[in-house]
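Help needed: design a sequence for this.
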């Protein structure tokens, strides 16, 4: 098995390393803008320049960059690794419950207590954070982040590059277009067909 290299060493990295260590896996090295001493790994490999030259070789890569303000850095890392033909890992915490009838894309991180129901489909490079719930039949695009405790009810469709904030609730059978940010604690009760930031109960577009 290839040695694991993590890309990004902030808060999401710590949560991912915690889930990895429970699976009995350790991190060989990490990449970030600067060295970030941490309890999981002391081997700083370099920054974006190192990443640009990353190869399949002896390493497999886990994208541990978070995604709150923007999906762009995480997407860029995914595309670089893909272009370089690298093995991109998917992490599924053993404390999550993912239905065997669900499909989870490449490069996703599914953390503790997340629940992914049957007949759901999650695209590539998504974060399904601690305690997020995705109910049956829901489809989620690429490069999305469902933050801690977000609840997406059944048969919802979410486009690419979306962020659903902590504790937000989406009513069943909704459509959320690509490029939507939903604020923490918001309640979405109708389709969101315009990209941008939406928040509140019921969620409205922030001006
Ligand atoms: C929605 C969000 C992205 C907006 O951030 P922002 O663009 O910096 O917006 P601001 O904080 O300047 O707030 C703008 C307005 O929206 C309101 N607002 C912001 N977030 C809100 C929320 N979650 N619910 C309701 N209203 C919200 C503010 O009260 C403010 O209203 P005002 O103009 O009447 O004063 C941010 O507040 C948020 O919820 N982030 C998610 C945090 C999170 O879930 N982190 C997960 C970590 S895993």
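Sure. Designed sequence:
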């Amino acid at each position: 098995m290839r040695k694991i290299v993590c890309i990004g060493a902030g808060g999401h990295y710590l949560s991912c390393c915690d889930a990895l260590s429970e699976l009995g896996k350790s991190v060989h090295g990490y990449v970030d803008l600067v060295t970030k001493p941490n309890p999981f790994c002391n081997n700083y490999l370099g920054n974006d320049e190192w990443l640009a030259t990353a190869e399949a070789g002896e390493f497999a890569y886990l994208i541990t960059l978070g995604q709150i303000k923007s999906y762009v850095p995480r997407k860029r890392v995914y595309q670089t690794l893909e272009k370089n033909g690298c093995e991109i890992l998917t992490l599924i915490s053993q404390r999550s419950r993912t239905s065997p009838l669900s499909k989870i894309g490449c490069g996703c991180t599914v953390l503790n207590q997340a629940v992914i129901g049957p007949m759901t489909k999650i695209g590539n490079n998504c974060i399904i954070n601690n305690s997020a719930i995705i109910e049956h039949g829901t489809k989620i695009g690429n490069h999305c982040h469902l933050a801690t405790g977000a609840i997406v009810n059944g048969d919802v469709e979410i486009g690419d590059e979306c962020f659903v904030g902590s504790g937000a609730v989406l009513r069943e059978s909704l459509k959320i277009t690509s490029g939507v940010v939903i604020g923490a604690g918001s309640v979405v009760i109708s389709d969101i067909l315009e990209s941008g930031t939406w928040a509140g109960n019921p969620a409205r577009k922030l001006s």
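The chain has two domains: 3-89, 92-198.
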